[in-house]
Amino acid sequence: MQRLRIAVAGASGLIGSALVRSLAADGHEVVRLVRRSARSEDEVCWDPRRQYVDAAGLAGCAAVVNLAGAGIGDHRWTDAYKRTIRDSRVLGTAALAEAIASLDQPPRVFVSGSAIGFYGDTGDRTVDEDAPPGEGFLPALCVEWEEATAAAQEAGVRTVFARTGLVVAREGGAWGRLFPLFRAGVGGRMGDGRQYWSFIALHDEVAALRHLIDTEDLSGPFNLTAPTPLTNREITAAMGRVLHRATPFTVPAPALRLALGEMAEDVLGSQRVVPKRLLESGFSFAFPEIEGAIRAAL
Hints:
By secondary structure, the protein is of the alpha/beta class. It has helices at about 15-25, 80-100, 135-145, 150-155, 175-185, 200-215, 230-245, 255-260, 265-270, 275-280, 290-295, and strands at about 5-10, 30-35, 45, 50-55, 65, 110-115, 125, 160-165, 165-170, 190, 195, 200, 220-225, 230, 250, 270-275. It has an eight-stranded mixed beta sheet, sandwiched between helices. Strands 7-16 form a two-stranded parallel sheet. The longest helix has 24 residues, at about 80-100.
């Protein structure tokens, strides 16, 4: 296997840190983008808010992966925090795309993070990568986020949008909050539980990102979700079975709206998303079913 130099933005996050571990374990040279002065050869200074990247540090990279962004569920969605969410993604992606385009020898591929929030609330309707964007804050954000890669695309760099679903992991994300609740016996469905959750095991998320990096003819949007999305009610039952806990509780929709504000609509919304293009490209899931994904996380 050829040893590659690969730059990763968001290397300290849930997905980024797992990707870095996987790449390093296979002998690749990983360069991490950091928001301070670089202290070693495997670091590159950048400031997403100021749209600054030390482009020289990206020289020789075969791939750049951008997974940086403020946490969607870390704070209540005030106008100020929505700006933080937006700027951390759109400005940072644009800065990376411009830095890539400025290189005499740009990387072969730019894998830019995105999310299934692109599709908005799809109800019971199954959607794949051919579906148009939905309406609301998250779809508008995802459209801007993907459009921010324009400079890299115009420079002829193969550009991929990794539209990630809900990552099943113990260390963070939605499941990082769910596991303690279910282990304590207070887990349950949210709202009526009929909303679809499109999940993916962390192992498969990393494997899919590496597949997108390595497969030369892939570009454009790819849904990173397991093949069979399930309802919140079904996922709640699976959590109970795996953790051997009863799941009698329900968090009513009005209580979620009171606690979370606008973000509650994302929790209660339904996204029945399938990875059509990923499967067609030959990717094979290690944990396509929810119980396997939960056990892998544990």
